[in-house]
Amino acid sequence: MEVFMKYYNEAGHFPSNWGEKEIGYQGTSDSCPGSYFDGIQVKESFSPVVYTHENIQVEPDIQVRCFSYEDAGILVPRHWHNSLEILYIEAGDMDLLVNDLSIRLEKGDFAIINSRDIHATSSSEHSRIDVLQIPYQFLKKHIPDFDRIRFMNGSCGEARSDEALVYCLKEIQEIYIRKPYCYQLHFTSLLYELLFLCVNCFRLPAGEGGGSLNDEERARLITVMDYVNAHYQESISLRDAAAQVALNPEYFCRFFKKNMGMTFLEFVNQVRFSHICEDILRTDTSITELLVRHGFTNYKLFRRMFYEKYGCTPSAKRKETSGK
């Protein structure tokens, strides 16, 4: 606790100007050339989509989700959740897309993803990422005006604040992994300190953040993403998706492409593709059966997408990963 507490001033508060600096890691999709954020045409050879999560079983009395994952390259398509999510890069690097902001994270960097923000991630080979997800109910209970608060996605521009946040994140992961007697006491105290730091040093001025989407547009996209994730194994028509948000198909096409950076069909294919790739690397199920299971009917298109991403055929990648 000493490292964190030293950032208080003599009056027991953070300096009044903390949290007023400009956000770091800003950029556009051009800052991640060739990444999967640009749509289906992926140029970089990211490694297979295989998840090896560690310590993901959260004890009920800590009220948050705390875990790490270490892998050869993970692609997670655009998604959202109500939780506040904080990432810390222990090793490797990650491309993070939050709303319309592209962020490149390297070893030692962190990112704060606000509740209900639409985001996607792609980590490189041998990356290790620590993740802390704080549920909306917990945040609302302890931060009454949480619905009106947004946090910076990265550095606040003040080194002491950044260091304090990283210290809390690393201590939270360490105490959760070791689980000493009554670890919940220390874990909870660190969690409260982390939130206090976020509120006082990383809070954006009212009305800032959130990208170019307004609340209605965000709600529509969230509805569509939820619909696709629930039905991607089935036949999904553009008309069905448009009906979910009460838009005519023609307007829906333009709306989706403008705000997601890809067509609706490309998004559906990306979701299906990520599930198929994961199963290719962790099961022995035939490629054809996996395509059918996950609703991908165009095998030629799938092979082309797979080759563009991994530089080889699905069978070759499965053999390479299994070591056989």
In short:
GO terms for molecular function: DNA-binding transcription factor activity; sequence-specific DNA binding. This protein has 324 residues and is of the alpha+beta class.
Keywords:
alpha+beta, AraC family transcriptional regulator, single chain, 324 residues, five-stranded antiparallel sheet, HTH_AraC
Structure report:
The protein is α+β, with helices and mostly antiparallel strands. The chain has 2 domains: 200 residues, Jelly Rolls; 108 residues, Homeodomain-like (Arc Repressor Mutant, subunit A), CATH 1.10.10.60. The protein is 41% helix and 16% strand. Helix 3 runs antiparallel to helix 4. The longest helix has 20 residues. The relative contact order is 0.14. The N terminus is likely disordered.
- Radius of gyration (Å): 21 Å
| CATH architectural designation of the largest domain | Sandwich
Order of helical and strand elements? HEEEEEEEEEHHHHHHHHHH
Gross geometry: globular
Instruction: Estimate the strand proportion.
Output: 15-25%
Biggest sheet layout: 5 strands, antiparallel
User: How large is the count of helical segments?
Assistant: 11
CATH topology of the largest domain: Jelly Rolls
Low-confidence stretches: 1-58
Helix content: 40-55%
Distance between the termini: 48 Å
